[in-house]
Amino acid sequence: MTAEREDVPERLTFSQRHGYEPLPEPMRLEEISGSLRRELWNAVRLFLLEKTEIYNAKRADVRFTDARFIERVLGRFTKRPESHVSTEYEKVMRDFDLVFVNGKFNNVLDLLEIMVDELSHPDEFASRIGNLFDKHVAAYWLDMSQYPYRFFPRASGEQGEATRQAIETVRQGGMDGSATHLRQAAEHINAGQYADSIADSIHAVESVARTIDPGSGKTLGPALKSLERAGVLKHPALGGAFEKLYGYTNDEQGVRHALLDRDAPDVGLDEAMFMFGACASFAAYLTGKHRRAGGA
Q: Does residue 261 carry a pLDDT above 70?
């Protein structure tokens, strides 16, 4: 039996493999993955255990060394008077377990924010939690730039819906190759492979361009010029702007050609998310123009 590894991405579901869930994790608001929940609970449980002691060795009874912290946290979270909050070890651990394992996503974020608020020195615990959200490329991130520390979404609901509609336009337009590249780009984001995601996002636009004009060339630059000449792309400034973005990914320091003295190009989640949304939108734009011109 293979040992479980926390750093191995979860297997893709049927919907993810076949494109019915094309959005990457950072755009899936109101969700916290099962793997992130598991690691959050492990981290919080360890934190709580560090605040306990065995006070009756014969009975192995456990109590919290900082009962006031428990009262303040659970009092705020449950909106009960602190005097009504039980600090009995087993009950407290069950209460936390229920939130992190089965609770609503917003309750998980609420409880974590309250815990950070109630710590006199919150940075170590907050960093541990924030790093887990980053590791799992979650839809939310912990802003530690100023106190109080708060969670914010990585993308808005409007951005996610616009991208979802763009991908649906590409799929309905018969651009199967482009849709596949966008699905792969989303999977790369979820796996933390940001350079690969950007490359697949660009491939999605190239695929649409080649479908519209098979003679447009193997890269985006010539394809855009061909589309302008064919009258499909009627705004040269828009094509020029996208060609500049393409140039960023394709120069000698870009994601396709890492420098010899580097192991990987210097791109991250923000760049991958931006290119994913931009490429999905541009692919949808080209697909829509092509369909209205009678190409599909």
A: no
Q: Tell me the Ramachandran region of residue 9: left when phi exceeds 0, alpha when psi lies from -120 to 50, beta otherwise.
A: beta
The pTM score is 0.69
Q: Is the pLDDT of residue 45 over 70?
A: yes
The number of distinct structural domains making up the chain is 2
- The pLDDT of residue 266 is 67
H helical segments located in the chain: 14-17, 34-49, 67-78, 89-102, 105-117, 123-135, 157-172, 176-190, 194-212, 220-230, 236-250, 269-292
Separation CA 275–CA 281 (nearest Å): 10
| Percent over 90 (pLDDT), the chain | 37
Q: How far apart are CA 127 and CA 255, in angstroms?
A: 29
Which tokens go with 198? 């950007």
Structure tokens at 212: 């519209």
> Do 162 and 134 lie in a common domain?
no
Separation in Å, CA 192 to CA 246, 267, 286: 21, 11, 28
Across 128-243, the runs of DSSP E, i.e. the strands, are 140-143, 150-153
Q: Which of 153, 171, 198 is the last residue of a domain?
A: 153
Place of tokens 């919080």: 44
Three-state SS for 245? Answer: helix
DSSP characters for 266-288? S--HHHHHHHHHHHHHHHHHHHH
pLDDT of 4 = 40
- CA 144, 148, 151, 157 dihedral sign is negative
Same domain, 161 and 148: no
| Side chain identity, residue 29 | L
Q: Pick from 19, 11, 15, 13: which is nearest to 181 by CA?
A: 19
Q: Kindly report, residue by residue over 268-288, the tens digit of the pLDDT.
A: 888 888 889 989 998 998 898
Q: Mind listing the pLDDT tens digit for each residue in 8-17?
A: 344 555 555 5
